[in-house]
Amino acid sequence: MISERFARKNTLFFLVQWLLVATVIAVLVGSASALFLFSLDWATATRIGHRWLIGLLPFAGFAVGWLYLRFGRSVEAGNNLILEEVHNPANTIPLRMAPLVFIGTVVSHLFGASVGREGTAVQMGASIADRFTPLLNLDNDARRMVLMAGVSAGFSSVFGTPLAGAIFGMEVMAIGRMHYTAIFPCLLAAVIADQVGLMWGVHHTHYAMSLIPPMSLWTLGAVIIAGGCFGLAARAFADATHLIGGIMKKYVAYAPLRPFIGGIMVALAVYLLHADRYIGLGIPTIVDAFQHPLAPWDFLGKLVFTVVSLGSGFKGGEVTPLFYVGATLGNALAPLLHLPFAFLAGLGFVAVFAGAANTPLASTLMAIELFGADVGVYAAMACVMAYLVSGYTGIYRAQRVACLKHQVVPEGIALSELPAWQRKNAREHARTEEAKADS
């Protein structure tokens, strides 16, 4: 067992053991992410070249739903399962999570669902990394570090942002608190996994922020206003996704029928509204948001298509759709706030993600890695505002509240448990007020 005694008292042993473990994890996860990204490129090109495939989206959804019902019940929780295992270690994450989410996401993109890719990379990273738990007989503390390193490697390699990936693996686990004991394996895994992906020939999209305005009271105030709008968009995205998912589970008992119904809705909307720009990753539209004005409703279109796709059970991630929502919302706000399109598109790109994932630090670092250090102050302000305005909600329901944002809630409570606590608290408050009135 990698013991706490050695991990705490022998620095050299700690560094060497995690150098070896994190490197192996990074090579495996970086290679898996590269294969995944190449597969997504193929799926996207095939769908664009054969538009009729969108008509088969309901049947693709049914197939993915059946696959998870038959083989993937233990891993259906996806990213939330990873967070639960970090907080309450119980069972090793089944390796089947990786191929199932890989296949499910590629199929979703091939036939036109509006989903992302981060969730897939993170799940592959964590499930691969957790193979070391029984292999090295890791204790719970070491296992948490392994899982976080796998998450960092997956995030970094799929987006090409190693610093953001390293911090994301620690920051996403709990709102307002990071496990700094994992900083070395997370950073090492993120950097190496990114390099492994590049060695395999992965090319990440370049987003050009051509003009960053000088600091002024107006610019700072406008960024704060925009950050609030990004936080509201993040909250709407997370709440709507959970709402649709809850409705589907309540009224459609047979799981494969949920993405079948969602697939019908998405496919019909694409054909009737000529809404191809709102399906898949949407990277061409994100790039356009940095270059010229777009339709002011583009952010809402992508939000609706993604909420229906993810809420009904299609597999993939939320982050790239959040990038789309943020970039196009920033594009729409730019003329209203008298700021450059590329500047607000870039801030929206990272800030909506910060609000929805409750990761303002990772999102700020992502902005610096993608757009340069000069945007750092503005990005930090937009991400922090979005994080605060989004409230106690998020795309990861297993996140714990480790530090209060504003309203007082129980420390350590999971986001999924908050609605029940709030209802109970409201009832108790109502009874207290009634008792005061009676007396």
From TrEMBL:
Query: What Gene3D superfamilies does the annotation carry?
Result: Clc chloride channel
The protein's UniProt keywords, in alphabetical order, are:
Ion channel, Ion transport, Membrane, Transmembrane, Transmembrane helix, Transport
A cellular component annotation (GO) from this entry: membrane
Q: Name one Pfam family in it.
A: Voltage_CLC
Regarding the membrane, this protein is recorded as: Multi-pass membrane protein
Q: Where in the cell is it found?
A: Membrane
Output the Gene Ontology terms for molecular function. chloride transmembrane transporter activity
InterPro entries, per this entry?
A: Cl-channel_core, ClC, ClC-type_chloride_channel
Give the residue spans that cross the bilayer.
12-40, 52-72, 93-111, 145-168, 180-203, 215-234, 255-274, 335-357, 377-396
Source taxon at top rank = Bacteria
Q: What is this protein called?
A: Voltage-gated chloride channel protein
